[in-house]
Amino acid sequence: MDQRQMKYFVALYEEQSITKAARRVHVVQPAVSQQIRKIEADYKVKLFDRTANGVIPNAIARRLYPLCIKALDNTEAVNKALREYSGVPSENLTVGVQSSVTQAVMGNVLLDFVSKYPEVNIKLREGYSANLIEWLNEGVIDFAILSLNEVDKRLKCEPIAVEPLIVVMSKNTDHQADSVAGAEIDRFHIVTPARGNQLRSLIDTEFARVGLTYRPTIEIDSMATVFQVIGRPGWATLMPLCAFPTDARRQELRSYRLVEPAISRMLVVATLPNKDVSLAAQPLIALLRNAITTAHKALEQ
Known about the structure:
Blueprint: H1 3-15, H2 18-25, H3 29-43, E1 48-51, E2 54-57, H4 59-86, E3 92-98, H5 99-102, H6 105-116, E4 121-127, H7 129-138, E5 143-148, E6 156-170, E7 179-181, E8 189-192, H8 198-209, E9 218-219, H9 223-230, E10 235-240, E11 253-259, E12 264-271, H10 281-300
Helix pairs in contact: 1-2, 1-3, 1-4, 2-3, 6-10
């Protein structure tokens, strides 16, 4: 029984349908049927009962299934080790990213990564920090890119960038300076995340540290809705640099440095304590770090 036959057998065992198994292993239905019949003929056994409700594994198949799973896992472990030793990343990579990071830089980072490493199958999941930490613990994502206001002992974190918060408003809003001081924030209709949001907590803490208060006009967690609102003259928001759009919306908006207080957040790569960042993830992280650095330099010009 070769590796291909094991894959077909496992797919049919789990799907209990020739059609679904064929779709899963990306072949036509007769290919799956032919290989299963060949196994049964070569070893003179019957593995499945064909019924009106599907293809049902019998007792022999149930004993064979865990052995095939183990064999396939071992083969993949060998292949992965060889790829890592060769320095060529090739694997499935599932990344969790905070919503604010995906707004601007992440799209170009992914395009650059895919063009340079087409052999890596990458998936991106977007969520808030709490979602990302939950997905890490559940094994849904391999690592997360998120911001932390303080050390989370449940995670192993590697800093990748310090990202400033900026003030963003319509280009038609009257503001002549190249920065916005915290004391003048209330000149605008301010939009912030709701209380309990990590970014909101950071803003509140830093304003209180310098003895300032402010009063949000609206509290909105959805970045898409925030952009709709601040497109109106007189409205503004505080957001991380990575959230400032690079698409057509940028033409209608202006960004300003926030001063007194200047607020920054730390972006980190987070994994579980017993897990290291894979070889395939390292160039993705490097591209993200460079993109944030470039965006920061553009803001300072």
